[in-house]
Amino acid sequence: MTSTFHSIETARRSLFTQTAALNTTGHNIANANTEGYTRQRVNMTASIPIEAYGLNKSTVPGQLGTGVEFGSIDRIRETFLDTQYRGENSALGSWTIQSDTLDKLESIFQEPSDTGISTVLDNFWKSWSDLSKNPEDSTSRKIVVQTAQAMTDALNYMSRQLSNLDTDLASNVAVKGTEIQGYLTSIADLNSSIFKIESMGDKANDLRDQRDLLTDKLSKIANVTVVDSEYGYNISLGSQQLVQGLAVTATVDSAFLNTAFASGDLKTGEVHGMITSSQKYVADYKKQLDNIANTIATGAMEITLPKGSILPEGTILTSDATITQADGTATTIAAGSALPKGATLSADVKTTVKGLNGLHQLGYTMDGTLNPGKPLFTITGDGSAITAGNITFNSEIATDTNLLATSLRTTGTGTSEAVVKGNNTLALLLANQQSGSFTSPTTGIKATAGSFYKSMVGQLGIQSQEATRQTENSNYLVEQVNARRQSVSGVSLDEEMSNMLVFQHAYSAAARFMTTYDEMLDKLINSTGTVGR
Questions:
Q1: pLDDT band at 343, cuts 50/70/90?
Q2: At 44, is the secondary structure helix, strand, or coil?
Q3: Is 424 a residue whose pLDDT tops 70?
Q4: Is 322 helix (H, G, I), strand (E, B) or coil?
Q5: Buried b (16+ CB within 10 A) or exposed e, 244-267
Q6: Nearest C-alpha neighbor of 265 from the set 208, 234, 225
Q7: Dmax (CA) of the chain
Q8: I want to staple 386 with a disulfide (CB 3.0 to 4.6 A). Which of 45, 121, 294, 515 is the partner?
């Protein structure tokens, strides 16, 4: 025999379940724009049926249903898509930083432009060409000094900019280390809260959303691996464990991240992009810029000294030379031997000098002496090699432009020997080095000064294009995976509105059922058995 109030209980269960479904739908709608929110669903199941009560087995066919109940409220989420998203997000973080760094490098070099190194170099060579037309012109000499100083200033400025960029990258690595540590602490705390709540049989859906959101953000900074365990997320970076359940197991700082990069544990992410940018791009271009400065100043280059040139006493050539001595005697000077005073070259001679400094020291100045020219470029501060950061134009020449060497001729002998100030042989040789080949002291590569720089700028352009392409590809993949994830986990307002109507009608029907059964009971209890009263 069925319980008299059986259907009242069935209606009650239905009302409670549909209320929970409506509340969950409202929660979904309220968080439709909440970052990291995962839509939730009430899992409805038919409650356990019962056999009709009686002294003996009921003859009623089947079992009596007891209505509906909800066992849980679950998040609709796929772990596979989360893992895929975090992997692509990490790659995007690395390429975004690399692309941004290369954009900054392009801004530093500013090529092509009217203020770049190419223009400054062209102006420098042109000033020597103009000076060769009138070596005694003081204005032309000042222009040579100014263009040379502009060139060294440009190299100094670019070197400082590269150093500042490198410093910024290193600082950002430290900042990201602090950010990672904060995320790890928050994730460990959420692990603890989730464990406490779920150990009592409830589901901490919203706390899980917060944890997943923090993990997503963490994945953009570094290529973390996430494993869900009994006590929550275990997070590692390569072989380094960062979070173990309820505890943070590592202190992440700049040193930790650089060590992880060196060991290969740090493979992608924003920090990977920063360290790669520093060690691969900035360091390389700073090295190349240093090489250009050192090569122009001291790089070996072969020149041809024309017949009739008279070189300063003690000059050493790298090839045998036939000369006419001051007394008219012809002789041959072996390579590596010092030339005597007043020796005139009887034929063109090829020799190797150490950059523009070495070439300038082969000529005579206009200071009234027979002293050879001084090095054009020196260094500021300490250092044995010329770099883009320490190269400077010789301050003595900058103060007295008469110290610019332009002549390879003297007249007279003995104490009456004097420089032919109008001779332009050395000025022409210096101007012609625009197309002359320098051999790099560090790499041994042979090319013009302009070619060294153009090669570097060309390399930068190719690397920047590649980084931009990789960034666009990674961004597309992240958007694609995220779209798939949102199709599963995201809140659709249209769908939620439809669900709301369904649950509302179900609630109304359950309420109507309860009212109907209440009226039946009222008839049974209050309107029957009244005969004979």
A1: confident
A2: strand
A3: yes
A4: strand
A5: bebebebebebebbbebbeeebbe
A6: 225
A7: 166
A8: 294
In angstroms, the CA 173 to CA 221 distance is 10
The model's confidence at residue 61, banded by pLDDT at 50, 70 and 90, is low
Q: How far apart are CA 515 and CA 12, in angstroms?
A: 11
Q: How many helices (H) and strands (E) does the chain have?
A: 13, 17
Report residue 119 as tokens. Answer: 């223009």
Task: Please name the residues in contact with 414: beta carbons below 8 A apart, sequence gap of 6 or more.
Answer: 326
User: Of residues 205 and 51, which shows the higher confidence score?
Assistant: 205
Strand partners, 40: 75
Please report which confidence band the pLDDT of residue 328 belongs to, taking 50, 70 and 90 as the band edges. Answer: confident
Q: Which residues pair with 232 in a beta bridge?
A: 229
- Within 10 angstroms of residue 70's Cβ, the number of other Cβ atoms is 19
519: left (phi over 0), alpha (psi -120 to 50) or beta: alpha
- For residue 466 the two structure tokens come to 């590649």
CB proximity list for 421: less than 8 A, separation 6 or greater: 135, 136, 366, 407
In this structure, how many other beta carbons lie within 10 angstroms of the beta carbon of residue 207? 17
Please name the residue that has the structure tokens 């790499």: 443
pLDDT higher than 70, residue 507: yes
Terminal-to-terminal C-alpha distance of the chain: 29
Entry pTM:
0.88
Report how far Cα 494 is from the mean position of its chain's Cα atoms.
41
Which residue is it, tokens 């150490």? 354
Q: Is 57 a residue whose pLDDT tops 70?
A: no
Summarize the confidence of residues 330-343 as an average pLDDT: 88
The full length of the chain comes to: 533
199-222 confidence digits (pLDDT tens): 998 899 999 999 999 999 999 999
Residue of 77, 74, 79, 17 whose CA lies nearest to 41:
74
- Judged by average pLDDT, the poorest of 55-64, 248-257, 400-409 is 55-64
**Which residue matches tokens 């020796």?**
343
Q: How many CB atoms lie within 10 A of CB 64?
A: 16
Q: Which helix (H) or strand (E) holds 98?
A: helix 79-109
Instruction: State how far the Cα of 311 lies from the Cα of 341, in Å rounded to an integer.
Output: 8
What sections of 110-199 are H helices per DSSP?
117-133, 138-198
